[in-house]
Amino acid sequence: MPIEIRELIIKVKVEETIASTSNNLDMDAIKETLSNLCKKEVKKQLQKLKER
Q1: Is the CB of residue 3 less than 8 Å from the CB of residue 46?
Q2: Phi then psi for 24, rounded to 5 degrees?
Q3: Whole-model pTM above 0.85?
């Protein structure tokens, strides 16, 4: 039974920083966070399907 996610919403908070730390993005942490959010959404959709 495939699950279709039609919409991906990415929310970010942009803050102005004094130091130039914007070049030091931790891509592994960003990927992990995004992956966890996607997994959470898939689990939520599966739970909705089970409730029907």
Answers
A1: yes
A2: -100, 50
A3: no
